[in-house]
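EI: anyone free to look at a 497-residue chain?
SC: sure, send it
EI:
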Amino acid sequence: MPVDMKKQLTLLEEENKRLKEENRTLKEEIRELKMIFQLNSDEIFVTDADGVCLMVNAIAHKHYGLIEEEMIGKNVREMVEQKMFYPSATLKVIEEQKPVSLIQTTYDNRKLHVTSMPVFNEKGELIRVISNSRDITELLLLRQKVKEMEKDIEEYNMKLEKLLKEKRNSWDGIIAKSEKMNNVLNIIDRVAQVDSTVLLLGESGVGKTKMARLVHDKSNRKNGPFIEVNCASIPPSLFESELFGYESGAFTGASSTGKKGILEAAEGGTIFLDEISELPLEMQSKLLQVIQNKSFFSVGGRKLKHTDARIIAATNQDLEQLVKEKKFREDLYYRLSVVPIHIPPLRERKEDILNLTIHFLEEVNKKYNFNKVMSPKLLDAILSYDWPGNVRELENTIERLAVVSEDKVIDASLKSMFLKNEDAVDASELIEPFHIEPEFEDDEQRSLKEFVNKMEEKLIRHYMEKLGSTRKVAEALKSSQSTISRKCIKYGIPTQK
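SC: here you go
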């Protein structure tokens, strides 16, 4: 056989192999495309330029109740006449020669979102119409249900608002429906008419400051000053001068003109001593003298001054137990608790939670120009929660829910914000284990108390640097925030980063 012929045969064989490989690859690609076509979750419906169905995938059976073989070769006009679906996006494309998108209704009243695209040949003639359809029946039903739910919620909140207006107590803005809280307000109403010393007792966040202000506002001292003093926030070394004032030159650094103290500034009004349990023992005896004698000397002064300021004290501590532990003077305790008033925690007056919730939401809406409402499920969660932080926690939570929610309706999905206390501190998660190495230098010169104070200072300073707030440190060390604040002042530890 001539060499040229052998070369030609070899070339033909190679070309044949190549064509077979291309044919195999093409068949594989076609098989994959058919698989993708059939498994597509949306309906794909292909017709010619006259509207005759050429191809359709399996999902069409769910939409029209017909299998693929029953639709291929059938004209969409016939399908519309048989009321399988209407209107036809394909016919609109044939008529308008441009893409069409519409909502189609099927024979069993399902709703399809249909987008039909025209396909033109090189001459600009229509040759195919390809339609993509998605069942949106459930979506439309859901949208309708949401609208109905929003309407129900609006009516529900209107009824709640009406109920709130009917049930709100007229205690100068204090919301109280529960029997326990109304008993407290009745006592306050009576005690406000006299000048007896009042001791407000209750957990943190129950509203002791507001109750103290209410006593003042309902008394004949309402036109006088109301001065609030947090006993945990004033260093012991400064407390005396803050309370009694001082004369010119009373101590190094004193003002040359002297300074009027809280007792003088509150003349004819009320002094509210919050966190009275944190008052240093040395100051307790001086406060006792003021309450007993209604008189005092300013620091560095020699002239006896008289005071006409009413004393209201408050604490979240068990003062009786502190008296037993010799941490609080017994005689001062009895002087302060002429009229003790226990303010119940929110978990013991759940009847008030609904009215408080609506009130706080109203305030937030007004503050931020919102128009937020709460879903019934979220309200149920709020009503069933114990609120360990009491009214303060509820108020802060309502504002947080309203601010965080992107929708008008604050949904129950946000209830984890209070059901799971995200602000709680787990020291083991936030900071590494802390080991304090005792310092024994000059141990013969240092007392046990000085050693303990040094270790305490190191511990609190370390936690403040890691956690950044007295509240978090108090939770981590299982102490009270007021105690940590007082210790920070004592040791000169910054309380703000």
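EI: The first helix runs from residue 3 to 39.
SC: 👍
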